[in-house]
From TrEMBL:
Annotated region described as Disordered, given as residue ranges: 334-363, 467-513
Designated gene of the protein: VAC14
Low complexity bias spans: 474-484
Oligomer status and interactors: Forms pentamers. Component of the PI(3,5)P2 regulatory complex/PAS complex, at least composed of PIKFYVE, FIG4 and VAC14. VAC14 nucleates the assembly of the complex and serves as a scaffold by pentamerizing into a star-shaped structure, which can bind a single copy each of PIKFYVE and FIG4 and coordinates their activities. Interacts with NOS1.
Superkingdom of this protein's organism: Eukaryota
Pfam families, alphabetized: Vac14_Fab1_bd, Vac14_Fig4_bd
Entry-linked InterPro entries: ARM-like, ARM-type_fold, Vac14, VAC14_Fig4p-bd
Protein name per its UniProtKB record: Protein VAC14 homolog
Sequence ranges of Polar residues compositional bias: 502-513
Subcellular location: Endosome membrane; Microsome membrane
Family: Belongs to the VAC14 family.
Functional description taken from the UniProt entry: Scaffold protein component of the PI(3,5)P2 regulatory complex which regulates both the synthesis and turnover of phosphatidylinositol 3,5-bisphosphate (PtdIns(3,5)P2). Pentamerizes into a star-shaped structure and nucleates the assembly of the complex. The pentamer binds a single copy each of PIKFYVE and FIG4 and coordinates both PIKfyve kinase activity and FIG4 phosphatase activity, being required to maintain normal levels of phosphatidylinositol 3-phosphate (PtdIns(3)P) and phosphatidylinositol 5-phosphate (PtdIns(5)P).
Major localisation: membrane
Biological-process GO terms, alphabetical: phosphatidylinositol biosynthetic process
Length: 778
């Protein structure tokens, strides 16, 4: 520094002392400056005061010489002390050079700068608030200073500044938020601790409503929650907890919509604490904001659904996620569906939630404001506030479809997805049927799932699709596979002309009887695709086929299921599969408790509908000779059963054929055929039943089944021994007359025709075409 330069009004002695390397001499100079400035204040000489501050700032604090900078800092602090309450008039000039020294490479100088600023702020108190941002910015840097002395000094200054903010009502929060939003993303541990401490202070001041600006800093808070330091994580937990308490107290002033996506992101993190905290927030948001959260449903489900499959190690997260899922599901109501007049075939473009959300968040339109008023608790909302919130299913269905398609996803997640689909089909069927064609393949594929519970829920969804009135469209979409590309008429419940079994012109063919619920257009498509899946996955048919069909009979109408499957199998080109499927259906029909009512309906054949059902089943059952006989036994068509058995002598008797006869004998001994065994007592009225059973006996080789049936027939009483005087006087009775509505000759001819086809196919496969003369002659 040039010693000859004029630093008036500072005396040469003051200048020399300010430049000295000893602290004590600089302190003496500071006292002289304080005395000098006090005189100027007494004289109200503002020009000289400004000149002194400018000289200390430019010539000393910003000097290239380190000792001069130290002298300038202590001199500026002395000026502030001398100015007292008037220091507020010169704060800009006093603070700026000191803050510049915060960046100095010399740690001692940074410490002196911190000390000087402390004295300046201590004198000015509330007058420094207009300069709060620059002070906060400087302090945030010192908080991460590597020197412990500097850090200690900054903490003293920090506490002082917090006291000033706490006791003042003039803090400018609006201008401070952008700086806070920027600094909150610091990765430095001490800087994060500094930020959290300030948020706690601001949150505690009654006159400062930090909740309004929570969307600006929420993401940063969750970032800090993942810090490696336990103390910082604990502090951040406290801050987030305080915010959540305030949200619960004042939900009407919370900007739920602007924070929804932030929570969605952090609900998917791998950090357990962040994920649990974000999920707890999501739970509260859904319960407090209600339908305001509906536009964010796809994102929420993306975050929540995977958590439902967590094990006990993440039990807390799983439980909270389950509450979120249930609460969100309850928000969907029938009012979210489209009007009746808009049919599923009339596609209406749905804006995706992802496209719509940023517009809602970034504007203050009337629509966005509706969301804020809807955030009130149920007791504070009005019914009219729910109307503007529109549920868009495109994103939701896409998320559900994606999770159901992922084979690696957990069982509980898959169950939750299927519950969602079922809920949406119940509450918003017309909207959902626009997505059915995309969901249908994956729902069918889910039938191969390893979990019975998943299959049950899947069947519930498929049953709802097949029975919902909203699914009755002119065109439910193309069927899967070239062999199932059916015409429009084949998608409907088959017409009378297809059956052609009854002589009565007024029959309804395969239509549902008036007493059964009507299935929609997707029902027949479902049956076709289900049989196609059984055909391509024989293991599925073998392991889960009976379970699936029995459950469908509970969920839908059993008569409709058997009617439609029989009609489809009638045109099945794979005869081996048709025979296997008919055998499976017959076993289910005869043994399942779920089909008790249907068995009783077929047992008597009293109504036109039951006779029609018998004829439909019979034509498909002809793919398997033994099952055809068992159907005749079930329906008490004993004479026709005897006629069929007579034809067995012309069929190719194989081991599989004899095994099925063996199983039929076992079935006759089961409770299902109790009535048949009791009818053996009435020998005169059931001669064809006895003949049919003897026919089966003659087909069997000497085996356990042969012995079983032989012993049964030995128990048939001599009719002469059963005669009484009353029976001798009574007119002789005949067995139940065949129904005049059924053309049994045509049925028998159909049986022969089908068996000829099977024989031809077997010979073609084995290359034994010379044995075709063994087929049944029509």
């Amino acid at each position: 520094m040039n010693p000859e330069k004029d630093f008036a009004p500072l005396t040469p002695n003051i200048v020399r002392a300010l430049n000295d390397k000893l602290y004590e001499k600089r302190k003496v100079a500071a006292l002289e400056i304080e005395k000098l400035v006090r005189e100027f204040v007494a004289q109200n000489n503002t020009v000289q005061i400004k000149h002194v501050i400018q000289t200390l700032s430019q010539e000393f604090a910003l000097s290239q010489h380190p000792h001069s900078r130290k002298g300038g800092l202590i001199g500026l602090a002395a000026c502030s002390i001398a100015l007292g309450k008037d220091s507020g008039l010169y704060l800009k000039e006093l603070i700026e050079p000191v803050l510049t020294c915060f960046n100095d490479a010399d740690s001692r100088l940074r410490y002196y700068a911190c000390e000087a600023l402390y004295n300046i702020v201590k004198v000015a108190r509330g007058a420094v608030l207009p300069h709060f941002n620059v002070l906060f910015d400087g302090l945030s840097k010192l908080a991460a200073d590597p020197d412990p002395n500097v850090k200690s000094g900054s903490e003293l200054l920090d506490r002082l500044l917090k006291d000033i903010v706490t006791e003042s009502n003039k803090f400018d929060l609006v201008s401070f938020i952008p700086l806070l939003r920027e600094r909150i993303y610091s990765n430095n541990q001490y800087a994060r601790q500094f930020i959290i401490s300030w948020i706690l202070v601001l949150e505690s001041v009654p006159d400062i409503n930090l909740l309004d600006y929570l969307p600006e800093i929420l993401d940063g808070l969750f970032q800090i929650l993942g810090d490696n330091g336990k103390e910082i994580r604990k502090m951040c937990e406290v801050v987030l907890g305080e915010f959540l308490k305030e949200i619960k107290k004042n939900p009407s002033s919370v900007k739920f919509a602007e924070m929804a996506n932030i929570l969605v992101i952090h609900c998917q993190t791998t950090d357990d604490l962040i994920q649990l905290t974000a999920m707890c927030w999501m739970r509260e948001f859904i319960q407090l904001a209600g339908r305001v959260m509906l536009p964010y449903s796809s994102g929420i489900l993306t975050a929540v659904l995977p958590c439902l499959a967590y094990d006990d190690r993440k039990k807390s997260i799983k439980e909270v996620a389950n509450v979120c899922n249930q609460s969100l599901m309850k928000l969907v109501t029938p009012e979210d569906d489209e009007p009746d007049e808009l049919r599923p075939g009339q596609r209406q473009a749905e804006p995706t939630p992802d496209d719509a959300l940023p517009k809602q968040e970034g504007t203050a339109s009337g629509e966005a404001m509706v969301g804020f008023t809807s955030a009130l608790p149920p007791d504070l909302t009005h019914s009219t506030e729910r109307a503007p919130v529109t549920l868009h299913l495109d994103g939701i269905v896409q998320v559900l479809n994606c999770h159901l398609s992922d084979t690696a996803i957990g069982m509980m997640t898959r169950i939750a997805v299927l519950k969602w689909l079922y809920h949406l089909y119940i509450k918003t069927p017309r909207k959902m049927f626009r997505h059915t064609d995309s969901l249908f393949p994956i729902l069918l594929q889910t039938l191969s799932d390893e979990s019975d519970e998943v299959i049950l829920k899947d069947l519930e969804v498929l049953a709802e699709i097949a029975s919902s009135p909203a699914g009755q469209t002119d065109d439910p979409g193309p069927l899967d596979g070239p062999d199932l590309q059916a015409s429009h008429s084949e998608l409907q419940v088959p017409t009378p002309g297809r059956a052609g079994l009854l002589n009565t012109s007024g029959t309804k063919g395969l239509e549902c009887s008036p007493s059964t619920p009507t299935m929609n257009s997707y029902f027949y498509k479902f049956m076709i695709n289900l049989l196609k899946r059984f055909s391509s996955e024989r293991k599925l048919l073998e392991v889960r086929g009976p379970f699936i069909i029995r459950q469908l009979c509970l969920l839908l109408n059993a008569e409709n299921i058997f009617h439609s499957m029989a009609d489809i199998l009638l045109r099945e080109e794979d005869l081996k599969f048709a025979s296997t499927m008919v055998h499976a259906l017959n076993t289910i029909l005869l043994t399942s408790t779920e089909l008790f009512q249907l068995r009783n309906q077929l047992k008597d054949l009293k109504t036109l509908e039951s006779q029609n059902l018998f004829c439909c089943l019979y034509r498909s059952w002809c793919h398997n000779p033994v099952t055809t006989v068992s159907l005749c036994f079930l329906t008490q068509n004993y004479r026709h059963a005897y006629d069929l058995i007579q034809k067995f002598g012309d069929l190719e008797v194989t081991v599989d054929f004899l095994a099925e006869v063996d199983k039929l004998v076992q079935l006759i001994e089961c409770p299902i055929f109790t009535y048949l065994r009791l009818q053996l007592l009435d020998v005169k009225n059931n001669p064809y039943l006895i003949k049919a059973l003897y026919g089966l006996l003659m087909l069997l080789p000497q085996s356990s089944a042969f012995q079983l049936l032989s012993h049964r027939l030995q128990c048939v009483p001599n009719p002469e021994l059963l005669q009484t005087e009353d029976s001798l006087k009574a007119a002789p009775k005949s067995q139940r007359a065949d129904s005049p509505s059924i053309d049994y000759a045509e049925l028998l001819q159909h049986f022969e025709k089908v068996q000829n086809k099977h024989l031809e196919v077997r010979h073609q496969r084995s290359g034994r075409g010379d044995h075709l003369d063994r087929r049944v002659v029509l």
